[in-house]
Amino acid sequence: MIFDHNLIDGKFQHAILEGSSYEIGKMQGQALKDNQKMHARIEKSIASFLTSIGYSSSKLNHKNMGFQDFQEMQVFFEEHCPGLNEEIQGFADGLNIDVAEVPFYGATYILPKNCSQFAVLSSVTSDRHVYVGRSYEWIHTADDLRLCTTRVKDKANHIGFSTFLFGRADGLNEHGVSATFTGGGIFDIPYTQKGFESCLVIRSILDNCKSVDDAVQLIHNMPLSGFFNLLVVDSKSNAALVEFADGIIDMKRIDNNSEGRVLFSTNHYALQATMKSNELNCGIINNSRRRYQLLESTLGKAAPRISKETLRMILSKRFPEGVCDHYYSEAFGTLWSAIFDLTSLKADVCFGAPTYNEWRSFALNEPVGVKEYPAIFPDARNEWPY
Asked: Which of 30, 115, 135, 199 can pair with 94 through a Cys bridge, CB separation 3.0 to 4.6 Å?
C-alpha cells in the first residue's frame, strides 16, 4: 500500500569489517574521513543524544563522567568492554586526531529511542527455529544508517546495526546469541546513575557471550544508565527481557518449558519493579501500549505455528495494523526492521520503512568491503503518532 507522504531518499551502508580491534578501528576512521556526510550525521547523532539527557556539549570531559583522568576511564572501559579502546585508538589514528577527542566515550557512559522487539522460541514456530524480530524508530538525519558485519580477532563474529560507530543497536553473533533493545519512553530528564548506555551493553554481549546465561551475568556486572529494555535470546531457546529504569532493574526469563514462549517489549515498562517509571513516560505510552497489545495478540493467535512470514507481516504493516511508523519529523520513523534467525545464523533486514522498501538476507561470512543500499523514508509530516 502506498501512502501520500513526503518520500525522502536515503542510503545505508553495510560494512564488513575484519581484523584486530585496532585494524578495524583504523578502517572505520579512514572511511569516515572520506565520507563527510556520514561524519556530519554521526556527529549530529551524538550531539542530539547528549542534549536530550542534559549535556550542553559533545566534547569529552572525563571528570564529568566521574573519572580522575582519561587513563582511568580507559581502564574502566577495558574492564567491561575489552578491546574497545584499541578499536577507538585505531579510529582516532585513521582520522589523525587525538583519541581523547573521540566523543564516543561520553555518549555511551553517562553521568547523570523508540522501537519494538520480540522473541519467539522454537517450540512455537512452524520450522522450529528461534527468531527475534525488531523495528527501530528514530530520525534518519541523526543515525549511523550502517549495518556492520564485524569479525574481530578473539571476539565472536556478529552482524548488527551500529550506534555512534562502535556501539550496536542490535545484532546476532556466531554463537546464536541475539541482543536488541527498546527505549523506555523517558527522555529529557537528568539521569541519576553512572553507567553504560544500551548500545555499549549490546556490543559487549555480541562480542563476548555464548548464551543468555553469559549475557545475564555480563549485564549484572556492568554499571548501567538510562531507560531501556534489553532482550537477549540464544539458539537453545532461552530468552531474557531486562527492564532498566535509571537504577531500577527487573527481569523475566523464559525457555521452551515456560507457559509463554514469546517475549516482547515496546516503549514502556511491563514488569513489576520498573512499571512505576511509566509515570515519567514522555507521551508515547498510548502508542507503545497499542503496539504491545498488537504483538501479544498476533503472536498469541499464531502460536504454536508462528512463521517467519508472521513476523515479517508484523514488522511490515503500518501502525496500528503493524509496528512500522512513518513519523520521521517527530523522531518516530522506522529506520530499519530486522528478523534474526538464531538457528540458521542469518539476518533478514529491511533498510527504511518496510511499507516502501524490500527485505534482504545477510549471513556472517560475506567478503570484506562496504556496500551501499538505497532506502525510502516516507515522512508523514502532517500526522501525529501518539
From this structure: 30
Distances (CA, A) of 161 to 111, 198, 207: 25, 13, 14
As given in the structure block, the three cell numbers for residue 220 are 549484572
82-104 pLDDT per residue, tens: 999 999 999 999 989 899 888 78
CB 238 within 8 A of CB 212: yes
The predicted structure's pLDDT at residue 260? 86
Q: CB burial class (10 A; 0-12, 13-18, 19+) of residue 338?
A: buried
Distances (CA, A) of 234 to 122, 130, 214: 11, 8, 10
Query: Distance between CA 169 and CA 199 in Å, rounded?
Result: 5
Cβ neighbours around 79 below 10 Å, total: 10
Domains detected in the chain: 16-108 (no CATH), 116-377 (3.60.60.10)
How many alpha carbons fall within 13 Å on the CB side of residue 82?
9
Give residue 83's region: left, alpha or beta (phi > 0; psi -120 to 50): left
pLDDT in tens, 314-370: 999 999 999 999 999 888 999 999 999 999 999 999 999 999 999 999 999 999 999
pLDDT at site 1: 41
- Among residues 9, 355, 283, 340, the alpha carbon closest in space to that of 158 is found at 340
* Closest C-alpha to 269, from 298, 242, 233, 295: 242
- CA separation (Å) from 346 to 338, 351, 384? 10, 16, 35
Instruction: Give this prediction's pTM.
Output: 0.93
Between CA 280 and CA 148 the distance in angstroms is: 34
Whether the bond between 82 and the residue before it is cis, its omega within 30 degrees of 0, is no
User: Residue with C-alpha cell 569516515?
Assistant: 32
C-alpha to C-alpha distances, 256 to 75, 307, 325, 368, 385, nearest whole angstrom: 40, 17, 32, 37, 36
In the structure grid, which three cell numbers stand for residue 231, read together? 532482550
